[in-house]
Queue: 3 jobs
Job 1
Amino acid sequence: MTTYALPEPSQPPAAAPHTVYTVASGDLRPAANTTCWPTQEKLESDLAAALVDAGWNVRRGHDVDPDKGHGFIDSQRAGIEVFKQLPPDAPLIVVEGVWQYSHHVLAGLRSHRGPVLIVANWSGEFPGLVGLLNLAGSLTKAGRDYSVLWSADFTDDWARQGLRTWLETGTLSHDTGHVRPLPALPRDPETELGAALARQLRHEKAIIGVFDEGCMGMYNAIIDDELLNPLGVYKERLSQSALVAEMRKVSDEEAQQVRDWLDGAGMTFHTGTDEATELTDAQLLSQFRMYIATLRIADDFGLDAVGIQYQQGLKDTVPASDLAEGLLNNVERPAVRSRDGSRELYPGVPLPHFNEVDEGVAVDSLVTNRIWTAMGLDPATTLHDIRWGEEYEGRFVWVFEISGSVPASHNGGYDKSYSMRQPPMFFPLGGGTLSGVSKPGEIVWSRVFVRDGRLHVDLGRGTSVELPREETRRRLDATNPQWPIMHAVLHGVSRDQFMARHRANHLNVAYGADADTADKALRAKAALFAELGVEVHLCGDVQL
C-alpha cells in the first residue's frame, strides 16, 4: 500500500486578549502606494489612539516594507499570506486612507470568522472614502457581513461611540431610513414608456463591449452573465491589445481632425512639451486615435455601450483613455467614419461608455440613454466617484469627481471644458482629461449593484449647484484639480445616510431639463428596472 506525505494543516495563531487587528489594502501601482503612505500612516495613528482610549490593544497584521516604502497589502498573493498569520476569530479593522484594490484582501475577508469593520478618514486628499465604498460594495456582493465607519481624525464623539459599539457587539448600524422599496407605480406616460423600453430591451437585446474586466480590483463592478442576460444584456468580451492594434491603423490626419474639431468647438488644452509631466500634442493625438478605434470596434461588433479598463497594462502602453471616454458619452462630438470612409459611425448619438469597466454603470447608462432619448432629454450620462464633501452655507455639498472625463454637455459645452494632463502618479504616459465644473441643474442619481445574488438599483434625486469660484478652487485643490467636479446636493439624504447605504464607489448622474422632467425621468427609470425584475429602492425625497 502506497503511503503519501500528507500536508500538515497550518495552525492559525490565537488571538491576543482584548486586541484589535488591522490591515491596509492598497493600490497595485507602486507610485500610488508610496505617495499615499504618509496619509495612511496618520489615519492608522489616529485610529489607534481612539482604540487605546477605548481600552483596547492594537496590533497591525502586517509590517511596513522599508524597501517598498509603504505598508500596504499590494497584491492578492500578499493578502493571502497576511491573512494566514491572522487569528481567524479576532476583531479586524480594514483601514483605508487611499484607493484600494478589493481583491488584495477579498480572499482573506471571505474566510475570516471574526467581525470586520472598514474605516476611512473623511478627507478629499486621497480617495480613502472611495476605497471604503468599493470594498463595502465588494463584500456586499460576496455576501460577507461587515460594518463601516468614517471620521476626519477619530477624535469626534460620533466616531468614538461607533468604535465602542462595534468593539462591544461586533457590529455597527447606521440610519438608513431614507431608503424605501418601490411602491406600486401609477399608470401614466412615463411608467408605460419605461415598461415598453424594458420589454424592447429584453426582446431585441443589447451588447456591452467589455475591454477586459476587473479594473483596479473592483470586484463589485463585475456582474455575472447569469444576472445580465435575463435583462436582455450580453457581453462582448474584447481585449485591450486589440484596441491598441486598431489605434495603430488610425492615420495622423484622422486624429488631427478630431483635435481641429475640438479646437473649433472652443475646448481648452493645457499643453506643454515635457512628456513626463505635461500634456503634449502627441499624447492628445494618441487619445484621439483611441476614440476613433473604439468607435470602429464598436461598429464591428454592434455594441450598444462600451467600457475601457485602462489602468493595468494599458497605462503602460498608451496615454489615458479619458478623453475618448468623455467624447463617446456626448451627443455632440467629432464625427468618425468607417475604415473605408463610406459611413459615419453612431451619427448624432452617444455611444455610452462605462468608465473603468464598471458593469453596474454599463446597465445603468444603457437604460438611461434609452429613457432620456425617448423623452427628448440630453442622454449624456456619466459616473462619478463619491469623493468627499463638506457643508457650505448650511447644507452638505458633495464633491462628485470622476478621475478623468465627463461628457462636455455636463459642463455646459466644449467651450466650458478643458483638458489637463493626468497625474504622473497614476498615469505614467500622460494623456488629457475632459474636465470642467458641472453646470447647475436637476439630476437623477442611481446605482445598480449586486446583493444576495440579485440585481438591485438605488434611485434618488439631487441638484448640481453652483458654488463661488474660490470655493470650487478650494475643493479641487483639496482633491484632484485635473479632474471634472460636480457640486451635488442630494434630496432627503444626509451625508452619513448615504455613506451607510451606498454599495459602490461610483454613482451615475444624468440631468433633467427641470425638476418636473427629472421626476418624470426617474419614474420611467424605476418602471423600466421593475419590469426587468431588478429590485428598485427609492432613496430620499423622490416624487413619484
Job 2
Amino acid sequence: MPKVLIADKMSEQAAEVFRARGVEVDVVTGLKPEELKQRIGGYDGIAVRSASKVTAEIIAASSLKVIGRAGIGVDNIDVEAATQRGIVVMNTPGGNSVTTAEHTLALLMSLARQIPAADRSTQAGKWEKSRFMGVELTGKVLGIIGCGNIGAIVAERAIGLRMRVIAYDPFLSPDRAQDLAVDKVSLDDLLARADFITLHVPLTDQTRGILNAESLAKTKRGVRVINCARGGLVVEQDLKAAIESGQVAGAALDVFTEEPARDNPLFGMDQIVATPHLGAATTEAQEKVALGIAEQMSDYLLTGAVRNALNMPSLTAEESARLGPYMKLANQLGSFAGQLTRSGLKGVCIEYEGQVAALNCRPLTQMALAGLLAPILDSVNMVNAPVLARERNIDVTEMKHERDCGYQTLIRLTVTTERGPRSVAGTLFGGTKPRIVEIKDIAVEAELGPHMLYISNADQPGLIGDLGRTLGDAGVNIATFHLGRTAPGSDAIALLEIDEALPLEVLERVRGLAHIKQATLLNF
C-alpha cells in the first residue's frame, strides 16, 4: 500500500480521500526542516501547501514518487531536484482559480474607490468625504497580462462590469480571445492603453520583473496596477518611484517579492492596497485544492494517471492502461539501443506509425528515453530522462507518420552516435505483446526475454552450428533463436533468448567464433 505524508494544514477530507482510495496516510504538520528530512524516507508521496519547504536536501533523503502542492505556486518545492530524481511534481491550478479571480476584482474595486484608506480614516473619527475621490470602472480599459485560467475568469467578470478588456498572452489563440470577447494585443500596446493592469502569469525568467521602470514608463499616466499572481513580477522599488512621480496612480498587491512581507518599500503609501497573499484564502478554495491533490496523488500512486504535473505530460488512468503495452515496447526499444551503444550519444529520433501515431506519444518518448539512458546512468525514469538527455546535449526528436508501415502499429527508435546512426523498430502482436521487427534495417521478428544474446555476423555457413555447439557445451539452453540478414552472404544478425545469464568466459568463446563481428548480452 502506498504511503503519503500530509505535511501542512489542509482540509481533513484530504486524508479521508487517501484512505478511501487505498493509500496509507499520516498527517504530521509543523515539522522543522531537519525533522522532515529525518521522517520523509518512509513515504511514497508528500502533500504540502506553502508552509513546508521541499528542498533538494529533503528530496535527496527520500524515496518519494510524487510531491503534491495543494494550490498553484511551487516556489517551496525544488522542482529541478525532484525531476532529477524522477519524482513527479503536481499542483492543483484550477482549485483556486475562481477565488483568486474574485480577489483580483475585490482589489480592483478597492483601488478604484480607495476603500481601505477611506475605512481607516472613517474609523479614526474623521469624515474626509472630499479626500477620497474614486474612478468608475465602467468604460475603463482593463489590461490582463496572462489570460490563462484565472485571467480568463477575471476577463469574464470585468466584461460584466462593462469594462473593455485587452490581453497580452503569447499562448492565447485568436479563437480563444474571440470566445472571451477580449482583444489580444502586444505588451507595449497593453501598457499604452490600459487604465488598470492586472497580472496573471507564473514567475519565470521571461516574466520576472515584467513591470519595471522601463515598462511602467510606457503606461498611460495614472494607471492602476493589481497583482494577485507572484511578487517577483513587479520590481517594487520601480513601482514606488512610479507612484511617487504620478505615473502610476496606485497599486493593489496580494503578493510580494519576499514573503511574509513584514518590511516592504511600498508599505505606508496611501496609494497602496495590500493583503497578505489571500488570493486562495476562501473555505471553498482550500477544500477544492486539498481534495484535488489527494485525488491526483492517489491516482498516480495507484494507477499511474498523471494530472497537473509540472515535469511530465498528463496521463489519464484510461490512457495509462491503454498506453501500457506501447510504453513497454518503447522502453524495450530504448533499452535495446542503449545496451548496444558503445560510443557517445549525439541524438535520438523516435518515430510513430500506424495506430500509435494517433495516441498521446509524449509519455512513450519519455519511456523510450528512460530505456535508452538506463544502461548508461543510474536512477533514470520517464520523469527525469528528458532532463538528463538535455544536460548531455542529446538531441531528441519525435515524429509521427501517416504512411503505411506494414504493421497496425510501429515504433522506430534511431540513435545517432559518433559512429553514425543505428535503428531498431518494434510492434505489438495482438495489441499487447511487444515484438522487435527490425534491427539496423534488417527484418527480424523476436520477443525479448530477461536474458538475450545479440550477435552481428557475416552470413556464412556453419555459424549456427558452431554457436549452438558452444552454448550447448557450456550447458546454456536456447529458448528462442531469431535470424535476419540483408542479403545472402552479407551482413546478418542473430537474437537468442537464453534461460540464464551467460558466463563471461562463455561469451568470450562466442566472440571468438569465425564470422562473428559482435556478441553482446542484453537484459530486459
Job 3
Amino acid sequence: MGGCRPGDGNGNESTLRRHRNGQYGTASNGRDWHHLIDLCALAGVLVIDHDGVYDPRLINDRLLLGLKGTMSEYELSLFRQRGIAARDSKAQRGELRFTLPPGYCWGETEQIEMDPDERVADAIHLLFRKFRELGSARQVVLWMRQSQVQLPVVRRNLASYKIEWRAPAYHTVIQVLKSPIYAGAYAFGRRSYRTKVVDGRARKTSGHSKSMSDWDVLLQGNHQGYITWEQFEENQKLLDENAHMQKRGSRKAARGGRALLTGLVRCGRCGRMMQVFYRTQPSCTHRYQCRGKDSQVADELCIGIGGLRVDRAVAAQILEAVSDHAVEAAILAADQVATAAADVRKAVEGELEEAQYEASLASRRYDLVDPGKRHVARTLEARWNAALERVAELEQRIADLETEAASRPETDRAALMQLAHDLPVAWNAPTTDARAKQRLTHILIQEVVIDLDDAANEVKVVIHWVGGRHTELRVARVKNVHGFATDQHSPVEVMRKLGGQWPDRELAVTMNRMRCKSQKDETWTTARVRELRERLGIAAFDPAASPETIGIAAAAQRLKISVDSVHQLVREGVLPGIQLMPLAPWKIPVAALDSEAVQIGVREIISRRPRNMAKFQDDKTLQLPGL
C-alpha cells in the first residue's frame, strides 16, 4: 500500500460494497464468506454496508465481519428451516398443492377431485382394467397401440396445465400404475436427494425413489380413487414380480417359454430362486437349476433337475384344484372378449365426441371471420376441413368395429361349459399357449420348493398354494441325468487316455462331466488339469499333430447346423466319429464332412426347419370360441 491509509482515495485501493438484503455478501456459506474476507485483506479492499466501513486488514474489523457473516448464514439457515417446516406441515394436512397427474385436478375447495372430462376418466379406468386382465404393463402398451387407444398426458410449463392425447408409451403407463394418487391417497416426499463427493466436489442427484415406509406423507382415503388401496398394493406386487432383471428373492412373473413354473421355483437347500435353462431343440426338455452364489465360474452349483416330470406332476394338481370352478373360468374368458371390444368402442366414441366438438368450434370460427380477409378465411377453412376429416375417420373406425362385432360368431356357452368339464383335454392341447398356462399357475400357486432326495432318487416338490395350504409330491428321477457317468473314473486313467488329445480346458469339462474325484474333492479347472498332465509327463495338445479331425462344435459350424443335429448324425451312423471313452469329446474326420451321405443328412435337417419361425411361434396360441 506504500504507507497509504485505507480509503484515502489515492486510487491504490478498490471498494467492495455489501448490502444486507437477507444475506450478507454474495457468499453461499461461511467458508466462502471468510475466503472472500481473506481476498479483500490481500488486495486492500474495503467492505462497506449501511452500518459502516470495514478494513479486513484490521483485526477488530475482521472479527466484526466474521460475526456478521456467521449471523447472516444462521439467519438464512433459519429461514430455510422454517420454510421447509411450513411446507411439511401443509403437506401433513394434505393442503400442499403440486402438479397432479392426468385424471385429477384441484377443486375450488383446495381438495383433489377427479377430472370432469369423461374421456380422461374413461381412459384411466381402461388402463387399470387392462393391467388387471393382462398382468403386464408392456402388454397393456402393446394392446393399446394395437387398438389405437390414446392416453392423456399432462403438458407442464410455467404458465399453463394442459392435457394432450398421445399414443401410449411405456413410461406413461408405469407412472400411472405406480402413482398412489389413483388409489385415493395423498402422498408427498416419495423421492429423495443423494449427495456424492466426486473429484473433491459435491454432486447432488434427485429423483431417487424411497420405500413406502419412508415417504414423508401418506394420507389414505384423502379423495376418490380410480382403484382401491388393496388393488394398488396388488399392482405394485405384480410390477415387482415382472422385474426379472432385479435380483431379489421374491418370485417372478411368467414370461412365456416351455417351463410351467417359470419364476415360482425355489431351491429347498439355499432358499434362492431357481433359474430355467432351455436347450436349442423344442423337443428337448427344460431344466430348473439353482446356481448358488454364482459369483465365479468355478463355484459349485447347488441343485438341478429336469423340469418335464415336475411340470406334469404340478399340472395334475392344478387341474384337480380348478376342476370345480372350470365352468366359471370358461364363462369369464368369454365375457372378457366382449368387454375388451366394448372398451375399445367406448374409447373411440369418446374421441369422436371430442373431434365433433373441435369441428363445430372450427365451423363457428369460420362463420365469424370477415369474408374479405381471405388469408384468414383460408386458414380457418383448412382447419375446419381437417377437423371434418378427423370426424369422418373416427366414424369409419366405429363402423368397422361394429362390422367386426357383427361378423364375430356368438359365444356358444354350452360348448364352453363342455370344454370346461373337459379341462385336461384343453390344457394338453397342442394349440394351448404356454403363457396362458403360466398365468393360471401364478394365480393359484405362491411358490414351489424343490429338493433332491438322493437316497430314494426322487425329487421332493412342495407346492405352496395362494390360499395358504401346502401339498407335497414325490417325483422319480432319471438315474442318468444329462449324460453324466454312473461309473467313477480315476483322474489318472482319464488323463492317460485323453491327455494330449484335447486342450486342457476341454479336458477339465470332460473330467467334471465324468465326475472324476480329485484328492481334495475339488472341481477340475484348466490349471489343475495342466498340473496333473505335466506330473504324468504327457505332452500338451498340438493342433498341427492331427489336422484331419475336428470336434463336434467345429463340425456344426462348418455344416451350418446345430450341435445336437451333429450328434444325431453321429448316432445314426451317417457321420463317422471317434470317442476314446464314454462322455469324452468326439473326433470327426474333416474329409467325411464333404461325403454325399453327410450332405444328404444335412439337407434333410435343414428341410425340417420352419420357414418362418416368428409366425410359427405366433400360431401357437389358444383359440377360444368367440375370439
